[in-house]
Specification:
The complex is a heterodimer of chains A (161) and B (173). With 161 residues, chain A is mainly α. Chain A has a domain of 89 residues. In chain A, helix 2 packs antiparallel against helix 5 and helix 3 packs parallel to helix 5. The longest helix of chain B is centred in the first third of the chain and has 22 residues. With 173 residues, chain B is mainly alpha-helical. Chain B folds into two domains: 83 residues, Rna Polymerase Sigma Factor, Chain: A, CATH 1.10.1740; 76 residues, Arc Repressor Mutant, subunit A (Orthogonal Bundle). The chains are: A mainly alpha (161), B mainly alpha (173).
């Protein structure tokens, strides 16, 4: 066997090696990573929205920096808080969902984490924070609660708030 | 338009089921390549996941000018070989590998262990050139090296395989 034939034989042997199979849980792990990515993009956008709302309040509120007077709680913020409370009650009254598959359970857990994150932000802001900033977070909270409601009961007809 | 292109278009529009179908169709091919280019199964799994994450992000850039599996494999090869651009203390030096003496016939090995004995860079060049059909220019681009580097790596790797392998797998008689 000359060198050229030996080289061809090595190449054929290489091509004939058995191909290793991808791990069985590869898609589940990829799906989780995709959701983590989407979530971090979402959190980035939510932070930007909150920052933009705070900036808008500073620009549009003439009394800022001049007086320590608290803006009166307007009906918009109160309505958002009441809406979120109603959704919370609705979620609380629903039976604990059965785990149909891991992906759905993961998606619900992520939405619950995001609601908890918004709650932590609202807590950190405190009631003295600019109203527009708090309203932006309450809107995000409501949107997450609606998604959670949908995830727990896909056929539910949501009453618009 | 073939099935892959249809799936790629639907995945571009955010259809996760289409992305899953693409994953299931090509995961073995991508993982198989990654496993050959990486040092361990865990590294290959990371490369595979990074490949599909990047593919999901950049599906809009896929123009359908070649098979989807080829596009995915290029991403996987780039990601796997990026690891060798960084210093790797655990990697045996090329010179040390070159000092391995020729093996007597009764100590010759099968192809799989012989391949594993090559350095990661040499093994990658052999695999990309001889199995995947990449040119030296393409390998050089993936490795941020010159085509001459790729050619010399391939020649040295084959010289070693010739010494290590049994004759029936292309080793010295």
């Amino acid at each position: 066997m000359n060198e050229r034939e030996a080289l061809e034989r090595r190449r054929e042997a290489l091509k004939a090696l058995p191909a290793p199979s991808a791990p069985a849980d590869g898609w589940t792990r990829l799906q989780r990573a995709l959701r983590r990515e989407r979530r971090s993009r979402w959190l980035g956008r939510a932070s930007l929205m909150a920052a933009a709302a705070a900036l808008a309040w500073i620009v549009l509120e003439p009394s800022v920096g001049v007086t320590t007077r608290r803006a009166p709680q307007n009906s918009n913020l109160a309505a958002l808080m009441a809406g979120s409370k109603a959704l919370e009650d609705e979620l609380g009254s629903m039976p604990e969902p059965e785990v149909v598959n891991v992906e759905d359970a993961d998606a619900r857990a992520e939405l619950e984490d995001e609601v908890a994150w918004v709650d932590a932000c609202l807590h950190d802001l405190g009631s003295a924070a600019p109203e527009a900033e708090r309203a932006a977070l309450w809107k995000i909270r409501i949107s997450l609660q609606k998604s959670l409601l949908k995830a727990r009961r896909p056929d539910s007809a949501l009453v618009s708030l | 338009m073939d099935l892959d292109e249809v799936l790629a278009r639907r995945a571009q529009e955010g259809d996760e089921k289409a992305l899953e179908a693409l994953y299931r169709a090509h995961a073995n091919a991508v993982y198989g390549l990654a496993r050959r280019l990486c040092q361990s199964g865990a590294e290959a799994e990371d490369v595979m996941q990074d490949t599909f994450l990047e593919a999901a992000r950049s599906l809009k850039q896929y123009r359908g000018d070649g098979p989807v599996v080829g596009w995915l494999k290029r991403i996987a090869a780039r990601k796997a070989l990026q690891r060798y651009r960084r210093p790797r203390p655990a990697e045996p030096a090329q010179d040390a590998e070159a000092e391995v003496p020729p093996l007597p016939l009764d100590a010759r090995m099968d192809l799989e262990p012989a391949l594993a004995r090559l350095s990661a860079v040499s093994r990658s060049v052999v695999w990309l050139h001889d199995v995947e059909g990449c040119t030296h220019e393409e390998i050089a681009e993936l490795m941020a090296q010159t085509p001459s580097f790729s050619k010399s790596q391939l020649a040295r790797a084959h010289a070693r395989l010739r010494i290590w392998l049994k004759p029936e797998d292309g080793g010295l008689p």
